[in-house]
Every structure is written in structure tokens, then in C-alpha cells.
Amino acid sequence: MKIKYCILLLISVLCMGVRAQTKQLGTMFLFENYLETFKKTSLPINLDRDAVFEIVNNGFRLYEINNSFKKFIPTELLKRNLNSTFKSLYLLPSRDSIVVTLVMQEYTDKHEMENARIYIITYNKKNHFVDYQELAGVVVDFWEAFGEISCDYAIVSKCYQYKMGNKVDMIKYFCFAEDIYEYYITNSGMVKKTKETKRNGYFECGETGYNYIKPMNN
């Protein structure tokens, strides 16, 4: 009786191992198919103002991430707006077995404003999500952000929040709260902030971004 019980237990353990391995292989193949929806690109990459608006205005041409692939999207982003659509942008060169992607999220917020936000999302060698960070995006007439990623994965994100100016002689310029964030991606795939710079002022608009002119209080 004990021998029979041991045999049944051994068979049960073996079956559990096979099911776990099968599930792992299924996830691996699904992740590979997910990565196939991205456009491979090299570094450095510069998502300046012209590039960001080009992506946003042509978002309908991008691959819309389906429900089966949404398991690879951070839960926090999925919950931000339940009616969001996610688009595959770029697959960056791997680093120390870390997979780095750029994904765009589109949704209408509670103020009826159209949001398009571009995120860095990282995964480890086991195809598991590690970390994410907002890099660029647009909320028309409210907020804009542009980003750069260097060859060694140093990241700079520049964000511009519209403000009301109070000087008549500066009416031809934009009044912004500018936030500049600097990050780097660790060997484990975490996105770490290294520096943050803030200032309010008047800016001149160019195709690639905004040029600082003078502070608001002068």
C-alpha cells in the first residue's frame, strides 16, 4: 500500500512539473510574439517635440496591444484608465539580459482631455516586468514632454506644464513650468532617478523643443 501511494505521489509531482514547464514555455513564446509587435531601433534615441507629435498624430498606424499581451503591461498603467489603448513603439537593444521597450498609452481623462503618454518599460531575462517610467507625451494645450535615451541608457525627460503669463511684452512666448528629470537603467532593469531640475519661465517654441528665454518674475 505504501509503495502504491509513493508511486501515485511521484506521478503527481512529475505531472505538476510538466504543467509548470508547459506554462513557462507558453509565457516565453507569448512574450516573444509580444516583442515582435515592436519596431527594433538602435541607440541613442531622441524623442524631441517634432518626433513626439509625429508619433501621436500617426498613432492609428501603430500596433494596438491586444488583451493577451496586456499581461506584460504594468498593472498600475492598466488601472490608470480602464478604457486605455496601448500601442507598441520601439524595442531597444538589450542590456545585460534586460529587455527595454517604449509603449504609448492613449486615453481620455476625467477632464475630457486626450492623453498620449510614452513609457519606458523593462523586463528581466525571465520575461517578467521589472519597472517603468514616463518618458514623453502630449496633453494638448496642457502638458508636453520629450525624452532622450543615450547609448549607455542615460535618460533625460523634459516636461512642460502650461501656465498663465503676466507680462504683456512676453505674449509671443509660452509660459511654462519646466521639469527636467534624469534617470539611468540599472543592470537589474530598475529605472533610477539621479537628478531633478525645476523652473518657471518664458520659452520660445522650436521644432525640436522649447528654448528658455527668461524667468517669470523678471
Model description:
Strands 1, 2, 3, 4, 5, 6, 7, 8, 9, 10, 11 and 12 form a 12-stranded mixed β-sheet that branches. The protein is of the alpha+beta class. A hairpin with a 5-residue loop joins strand 10 and strand 11 (191-205). It has helices at 2-35, 49-57, 75-80, and strands at residues 39-40, 45-47, 63-64, 85-95, 98-108, 114-123, 129-139, 143-149, 154-162, 174-185, 191-205, 210-215.
Order of helix and strand elements from N to C terminus: HEEHEHEEEEEEEEE
**pLDDT averaged residue by residue:** 88
- For the terminal residues, how far apart are their CA atoms? 91 Å
How many strands appear in the DSSP assignment? 12
Compute the number of helices: 3
What is the gyration radius calculated from CA atoms?
23 Å
Residue fraction in strands: over 45%
Oligomer: single chain
Helix content percent band: 10-25%
Poorly predicted runs: 17-25
Quick one: overall form?
Answer: globular
**Main β-sheet: number of strands, strand sense, barrel status?**
12 strands, mixed
By secondary-structure content and strand pairing, the structural class works out as: alpha+beta
